[in-house]
Amino acid sequence: SRLTEKGYRHNIVQSERYKYFQDKQIRKKHYMHLLNSLKISPSSLSNYDIHVSQNGIPRTAAELLKIKTLSIKKLTPIFPSLSEIDDDLIQELESEFLYKVHSERINKDIKRFNKAKELKIPSDITYNTLESLSLEEIEKLEKYKPRTLADAGNISGITPSSLISLHRYISKKNIQSKQKSKSIK
User: Model pTM?
Assistant: First the structure.
């Protein structure tokens, strides 16, 4: 959608195509509002063989689309007004809500990582036990022996996802060592 906007501003996208794009964006916004406004209780969902936490908190259709096994078509018997969603938008809307789950998780990981940049990397760490690291990353980490996550992040070729994996690994090891020291006492 950003490219269509830019293309139109630079006279690459024709006005007819741009009008279709604008219309589609308006329809998409309308349907997103619809998906966010339709609600159902967890107990009622179980009548449709959809099982969620029975905490009494109603779920919106949008929240239910974050579940990989659900789709707009599968939710239509529960929310008949979903049948009005145009076919050209169904996949786009479903993808948007599924992507949102991953996006939220990544944002949480980034926030956690930014707070933990000064987390010390144990000197006895064996990088090859981290399956998510490439051989090149393992070689560089072993060569430069960074003392903190921030130091590791300054090494060329170390990806953000590898830093997050390293953070998770160190945090898990720290928790395990704290639990061991508590059980010894």
Answer: 0.61
